[in-house]
Amino acid sequence: MVASVSSTELTPFYYRDNFLCLCDTVESQYADLLQPGESEFLSTFRDLSFPAQCLYVRLVSRVGPWFRVSRLHYEELTDTGPLLVELTSRGLLLWADSLEPSELGPLYTRRELQTVLAADISASSVSSKPELLDAIEASTMGNADITRRLCEFDGAGIVAPLGVEHVECLQLLFFGNRRQSLTEFVLSDLGVARYYPYPLDRSRRLFASREALDEYLACAALGDRWYELREADAIAVPDLLTLAADLSRMKIRYDSSRGRYSRLCNSLARELERRDASDAALALYALSDSHPCRERRLRILERTGQYRSARELCRQLLERPWCEDERDAAERIMTRLRRVMENKPQPRRQDCFQTLNLELPEDAPRVELLAAQALERQWDSVRFVENKLMNALFGLAFWEQIFAAVPGAFHNPFQGVPSDMYQRGFRLRRAELLARRLAELAESDLREELGQSYRRYQGYQCRWVNWRVVDEQLVETAVSLIPRQHLLAIWERMLFDPGENRRGFPDLIALGKSPGDYCLVEVKGPGDALQYSQKRWLRFFREQEIPAQVAWVVWQHG
Known about the structure:
Elements: H1 14-30, H2 36-47, H3 50-61, E1 67-68, H4 81-89, E2 93-95, H5 101-104, H6 110-117, H7 129-138, H8 143-153, E3 158-161, H9 164-175, H10 183-189, E4 194-195, H11 210-231, H12 237-249, H13 255-274, H14 278-285, H15 293-303, H16 307-319, H17 324-342, E5 355-360, H18 367-375, E6 381-384, H19 388-397, H20 399-402, H21 425-429, H22 431-443, H23 446-457, E7 460-461, H24 472-481, H25 484-496, H26 498-501, E8 508-511, E9 518-524, H27 532-544, E10 548-555
């Protein structure tokens, strides 16, 4: 059965209620971390009249920072004039008196700008809005005069909400990241997204102290600088080195910043690599503790002829790999190092997978569906599932472990997985829980176990389970036919690297009538080739004696 989407309607002031919920939650979990300015902002907002609160939330929820008062029309707020006065008096609204031409661009159309400023610029010869803005900037008019005349044009002013930095801080504390926003509340209110009720309290909060929060914000500021450099027309190496030096001076003390810091180090170091600044890149990679820092260090050592150091690092990676990509890279590089250092050829890995040749008519948008239809002559049923089935079985099998109350894993009520789901910390922090669950699954009735999980958790947001594709009957049929040892082996491999091993599964599953009677089938159309993630799974299936084939398709002629 497919989970249905609710037709719930939003209340007129849903956005204000959601913002208050956010504020209440932050105060309950982080009141001790708030600075005086942030606490004062919360107090000021709560003291506003109901409609003024609504207007403020409307403004901070929109892309700004500046807004034309004449365009502030909301059905539920009949008269915004007094509300603007109230917000101004409470220090939550700023009226523009002088804006840069670039700031005016998003607020006015080309025609409006030409109408108001035609007497002072040769607007008639300008064909595009960017050219018009350039002409305004090059003119002798002052920004204050331009802004005044535009405000007089529509009989109103231009405003911007104040305290946005406090709102951003509150949203960071609530969500635990800078990606999510108040939109998450809306999706939940509409019934589009329903989230599993994992516990949230101060003992499991992301930021343990104000110092931890400030450290995260410092990392975010460096990340913003890196983004600005990437967006520039050209990146100067000295600018990269300056940013690298600033990044190197940071001493990360808290887990809440470590992932963000490591990703930033990796990204900047990779750019330094491309600019032949290998020493600076190596220094940054050494500060990171997330993939691919060790792999990149290894590649630099190999490229620069530091073979002994490269071999030693390669051994470390092979002994304790962090993820699939790292292990595979280390295997390939070790082969090359032996070839160079021992001066003798090394055997190359030759893949030999079970294959099936299909000659099919070229009359469908998806070759996988054509292949499934052809294979149904031999099997009881064939389903086009790609990664969705195996991911769903994994999610249902380990649901409680995925949503376990691990400190720092859940920061807000709108998460489909814990924040460390695709990091190596996921399995390390839950090692005992996962080992115990694997032992339980080795002894339990998997058909009954996963069927109960499906019914218990159906409809809750989980990035592992696509409720619209994987139905309960498919789950129970698959678990009945796939031997327990095959599922346990697949699950253990997925737990090693959940981020990488959630992809690469074959396109089709062919199902028979009795236990063990099934086959996983990867379909490749004319000119297509196996991806590396697919090869990894096919090698694993071969090692574990899990039935899997590659179906090579050619088109029928005539």
